């Protein structure tokens, strides 16, 4: 099944452990992930790590990471999709 199909029912998920940088699958994928999916995951992980390590405003962290990635990747990560996660990571540290 192609990821872009309207009937995409893939429940596959993977997370990167921020402490070990290991990728862990939480649900098996039924689709074929695109290379952009991995780049998006890497950018989001970089934002989370920066949020945990600094007190820089979230909007600045978001902007600085997106300046370094492919513009197509940047369009897939609006701040509203990562800000709560960055808040959560920062609170835990």
What does this structure look like?
There is one protein chain. The chain is mainly alpha-helical. The protein has helices spanning 35-53, 58-66, 71-74, 83-92; strands at 13-16, 23-27. The protein has a domain at 34-92. Helices cover 45% and strands 10% of the residues. Helix 1 runs antiparallel to helix 2 and helix 1 crosses helix 4. The longest helix is centred in the middle third of the chain and has 19 residues, at 35-53. The chain starts with 12 loop residues before the first strand and ends with a helix. Mean pLDDT is 86; it is low at 1-7.
Give a topology summary:
Layout: E1 13-16, E2 23-27, H1 35-53, H2 58-66, H3 71-74, H4 83-92
Antiparallel strand pairs: 1-2
Helix pairs in contact: 1-2, 1-4
């Amino acid at each position: 099944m192609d990821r872009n199909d309207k009937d995409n029912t893939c429940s596959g998920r993977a997370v990167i452990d921020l402490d070990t940088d290991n990728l862990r699958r939480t649900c098996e994928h039924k689709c074929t992930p695109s290379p952009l999916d991995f780049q998006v995951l890497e950018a989001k992980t970089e934002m989370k790590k920066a949020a945990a390590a600094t007190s820089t405003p979230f909007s600045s962290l978001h902007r600085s990471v997106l300046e370094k990635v492919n513009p197509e990747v940047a369009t897939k990560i609006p701040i509203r999709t990562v800000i709560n996660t960055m808040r959560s990571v920062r609170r835990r540290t």
